Amino acid sequence: MKENAYSSVTVQQDALTRILANLVSVSTRKSTIAYLSHVRVRFTGTSVELTTTDNELSLTDSLLGIEGVIDAVISVDAFRLYEIVKRLPTDVGVVLSIEKNNLVVRSRRIEFSLPYLDAKHFPLISEEEKIGQINFAVDEIRSLFNKVRFATSTESTRQHLNGVYFESDGEKITVAATDVHRLAVATLMKKTGLKFSCIIPKKTVLEMIKLSSGKEVELFLHGREYVSRIKMVFGGVRLNSKLIAGTFPNFAAVIPHSFKSSLTFDRKALATSIERVGLVSPDQSRAISIGIKGKQLYLDASNSDASFGRESLELNEDIGEEISIYFNHIYLLDILLALDNKEVTMKFNNATSQVLFQGDESALYVVMPMAF
After folding, report:
1. What are the pLDDT digits (tens) for 226-284?
2. What is the sign of the dihedral through the CA atoms of 202, 203, 209 and 215?
3. pTM of the full predicted structure?
4. In angstroms, what CA-CA distances link 309 with 87, 250, 301, 351?
5. What is the distance of C-alpha 139 from the center of its chain?
6. Which of 42, 57, 183, 195 is most enclosed, with most CB atoms within 10 A?
7. What is the DSSP string of 294-314?
8. Are 144 and 73 in contact (CB under 8 A)?
9. pLDDT digit string (tens) for 8-37?
């Protein structure tokens, strides 16, 4: 150990790179609070624990089985450390040393020195009393939330719509998202023995989907009178998140239950055709027309520069009327790509009222047509 160094460990380059790649997605690159762009590095026992946060969400992962660890806790610029480590040689270990007021990173003849901050002021999300736990099988979280995540609102004035509604009635789990132009609802039959509802921020949802791929997941509910925090464990990775305060709309009230017409399509064929014709739809409205005449479905899009696109698909039935319904074609693609069913059903009454899309009973989508 070098003079003035009071903690020095050797870790694998690929393992450290993988962990930092996940952690920097939580950090805030441009923030007036330095800690929000930092990674907390905790040397303890036989491990190096790394944590990042944006004050609403935190992510923790660890390098285990490390020798020669002397307890210490610092915080250092997460993005700079990641950019350095991922460019180091992959066939030798990376030495991390705390020397004076710097974290020194060494590999072969390469050396970097990064100033660190005292981690005692690093913001950690407190865990209130645990009020419940749900265990998810491999990919259940990823599959469930992938079906609805795209429908969350991006408008800052509608904070309660900037996340995914998460509910359990004890027998099944329901998730929902809406931006008022479209609604996505998915269910998972799972006995939890818990009754609760909350709104999970979209950023947290995206991290959940990414981290849960191929893994079993433990989800812990924290709070007092109601759920105010969630913690999720993905193997050795821990995610802690605050929740969105507010009341989610009564989405069940806007789901139509009776329809005049119903058509079933090959999901992949319809998605491919919509994507192709949508190439000439207006940049602002992204409008596309679905026209039905006899046993033909026509997809049309045009632009102010006189660009035009059309494609027709064969239908298995004749609904007995001609109709044209205009949609934002991106909304349709989001739905079709979120499903994995071979076929998708479209149910509607007329050209101006809600249209329902469904692959099976586990998910449904309601889209408002565009006015033309």
Report:
1. 899 999 999 999 999 999 999 999 999 999 999 999 999 999 999 999 999 999 998 88
2. negative
3. 0.93
4. 46, 38, 5, 21
5. 14
6. 183
7. TTEEEEEEE-TTS-EEEEEEE
8. no
9. 999 999 999 999 999 999 999 888 899 999
